[in-house]
Amino acid sequence: MYKEINSLLAQSQRGDRKAKEKLALKLKPLILSSIKRYYNKATLYDDLIQEGYEVVLRCIRDYNKSKNAYFLGYVKTMLMYHYLDKHEKKYNQVSINKPIGDEIEIIDTIADDYSLEDSVVMDHDIKTLWDNISNLTDRQKTVILLYYIKGISLKEICKRLNVSYRTVVNTKVYAIEKIKANLL
C-alpha cells in the first residue's frame, strides 16, 4: 500500500490529476478518523470531509521528500492541526460588553429571565465540571486551568511547563476527552 501511495504522490506532484484524485480517495479513511478524533460534528461531516480533501491536496503540493518525513505522517499531522484549530476557533468567546451600536452592548440585549432554578442548575454543572477536573492528572489540570481559566496560550504553557508543544496539545486533548467521558 505504501508503494502505491508513494507512486501516486510522485505522479500527483508531476501534475497527474487522476493520480491526485485516486490518492485523495485512498486517504479518505484517514480524513474520517481525523474528523472523528479531533472535530466530531455529525451535522458538518460533508463539509469536514471536503476540508480534509483540501488539506490532502495542499499536502500533496507542499510535501518535500528531502525533509525525511513520511507522507502519510505529514498528512495525518496536517489534518490533526486543521481540525484542532477549527475546534479551537469554534469556542472563541465574545465579550458581552462588546458594543454593537452607538450606545448598546451585547449584554443590553440579553433577557433578564434568569431564575433561581437556572442558578441551581448552573451551580450543579460547575461543581460537576470541577469534580471532573480534580480527577485529572496534575499536568492535565495545570494545562486545562492555564489554557481555559487563565487564557494562556499553548506556546506560553509549553515554556512554563518546559515541555514540547505537542505534549501540551496532547495533554489538553486527552484531558478534554476524559472530562467529556465522565460528563456523558
Structure overview:
By secondary structure, this protein is mainly α. The protein has helices at residues 2-13, 17-26, 28-38, 45-62, 71-90, 116-134, 138-149, 154-161, 165-183. The chain is elongated, with a radius of gyration of 22 Å.
List the helices and strands and how they pair.
Layout: H1 2-13, H2 17-26, H3 28-38, H4 45-62, H5 71-90, H6 116-134, H7 138-149, H8 154-161, H9 165-183
Helix pairs in contact: 1-2, 3-4, 3-5, 4-5, 6-9, 7-9, 8-9
Largest sheet composition: none
The SSE string, one letter per element, is HHHHHHHHH
Overall mean confidence score, pLDDT = 80
Radius of gyration: 22 Å
Q: Which residues form runs of ≥5 with pLDDT under 50?
A: none
From the spread of the alpha carbons, the general shape counts as elongated
Overall strand count? 0
Count of alpha and pi helical runs: 9
Label the structural class. mainly alpha
Which range does the strand content fall in? Answer: under 5%
Short note summarizing the structure:
The protein is an all-alpha fold. It has helices at residues 2-13, 17-26, 28-38, 45-62, 71-90, 116-134, 138-149, 154-161, 165-183.
